[in-house]
Amino acid sequence: SYELTQPPSVSVSPGQTARITCSGDALPKQYAYWYQQKPGQAPVLVIYKDSERPSGIPERFSGSSSGTTVTLTISGVQAEDEADYYCQSADSSGTLYVFGTGTKVTVL
Amino acid sequence: QLQLQESGPGLVKPSETLSLTCTVSGGSISSSSYYWGWIRQPPGKGLEWIGSIYYSGSTYYNPSLKSRVTISVDTSKNQFSLKLSSVTAADTAVYYCARLSGYDGVNPWGQGTLVTVSS
Predict the structure, then answer these.
(1) Does residue A49 belong to the interface with chain B, where contact is any CB pair within 8 Å?
(2) A71-94 pLDDT, tens per residue?
């Protein structure tokens, strides 16, 4: 089955930059999406179509893509950015959705 | 503003069938641009896509759950539903319904509902 791999955790000091990677074989052919999930809450979309930011999402969130890896970058991390982050994409057929393994971002 | 709300029993016995309904408000489930889907999250674990349905009834299921899952749609009620048969403790999770798009991703999500499988 198709898998998206993320690092389990990332730690960053306030004001610094956090980068979260997501790797998958079909990523060159399928868009990637990123979700932020805080404890007890539903996930929230923070990046769509690899690098687009929905309205209401702070500019410090950005996305990029290179080959089989996509990256979520949080510039100038704030305490409120501490959360779990999941990438999501589809298999090569585009019909089966898959979520990444998730990354816990800790703000030191 | 589009909103989704899950409803259904919070406790299901092992070997029985889990049934949930998602009610869509603020928009039509018959929109040609979107699928509607179910995603679950076991306590302390990651997200798992269960399956998706188009308003016409076309479905796609996670291969790992396909033999036990049925997703259906009722356009007259602006609802779609999930049935998961032969449940075990491993099916205990928060179940989310959501709107799905190959362009917009999974957005928005319902608030989620915890379903516990226990006798």
Answers:
(1) yes
(2) 999 999 999 999 999 999 998 888
